[in-house]
Amino acid sequence: MRSEVMTWGVAGVSFWLVIGTAHASLEQFEADLQAELAGDDARMAIGQLVEEANGYVAEDVAVTYPNGDLLSIDRYRVDGRYAQPESITLDGIRLTELGFDTPVLTVGELVMRDPSAAVPSLASFETEDSTLNALSLTDMTFRLEGSLGDELAAEFDSQTLAGYLSIDALELEEVSRSAVGLIALQGVSGEFDDLATGISATLALGDMRIEALEGLDQPGEERLEHAELNGFSLTSEQWSVLLDNAWVKGNSYLGEAGFRGAEFDLGGLIDLAPPSERDELQALNRVLTGGTGRLSAEGQSASQWHEPEPGEANGRARLTSEGYLQLDGAGGLEFSMDVPISLPKGATLEQASKNPSLFEAATLYGGNATVAYRDEGLLPRIATEMAAQGRISEEQAISQAWSQAQQLGPLVGPQLTKLMVGMVDIMAGKAQSLTVHVAVPNPFMLNQFILDPMGSSERLTFTFELK
Length: 467
What we know:
By secondary structure, this protein is an alpha+beta fold. About 30% of the residues lie in helices and about 45% in strands.
């Protein structure tokens, strides 16, 4: 009997301890919501606080701020231990500004994994060493009304903006002051109206993904592992900008980048420019598109590092690169490179991938590069434009270009002079393509070429093919 009493006593104490702990956690939950969401000046109302299995829930949270703005959350759930939660989930977020019937911001669901607290403080994300582990939002819509519309209008030097921006899904991982592990967007759409100018545009983006973005605290030294964008369009009744796909991986020395399905309505976009700039843009339109106003483009490049083959005598690593740029109706450019290379003493490929300046200090040991240009009307149209602006004939414009190329000879050297003369020949319609083969001396310091390209180019051997 005594044993049974002791058992029931222990169980009772344990039960009341659990109830007391839950009650204390709910009280702390309410206090934290008041402190972090409302502060000292706002009024907060909560429909109910509930302890669920492995979690705590606040339903129908409403915060009214001194300026009359209203923040409402249908459901705020804390999963796991309150002191160290596994995640927090907010459903049905709405921010409505005073004087507006429609919320300026709505979020279907917000999920934060491994949060710093059950109700994180905004100040905790502003410290030097703060990190946002993982955040996802779905069904998010911004309406360009109230203060948000005013801020964007000021950013774009506009008097009044109207419209909306919707995002189906947004994911962020490992976000700090210096780096972002992941930014992922899906299903972006929007409409924008500048009420002062009458300009309207519709935005669409299928998806965008940025991975391992680093160096944010070092301007000019940003680097990323991978970024990709699909299905971008910005259109109006008079113009459009389209891009099917674009991607970047690595850095400018080692990696790949490219884009496909780019289309620009240059003719329509000119009307958006300040009047003082329109004549120059019209000239550019005539040169690039022949006056049609439509430009389609695509291009890509890829660079690879090749370690020497095992047992290869005097083997050196090789850096290869190839790519192209195509402007439909204007011209196309293809290039390739294959050079033996060594990094500065003690530097590794991994270090160079994170610090491109190490590539600039590399030494080349011979090798070659080829650049091939194929004209589709660009250079002859430049001659036409030069003639029109100078009020001379095209023959005179071409003759002047040829003379200028010859006059620059003493300054740039005979090899670059041949290059310029070849371009003038294409301008005159005597040829349609120019291929330049470049032989690199052994050794050749890359940084010397970067510092003095004109002087260093004399050590390179050029071979020209004009067709």
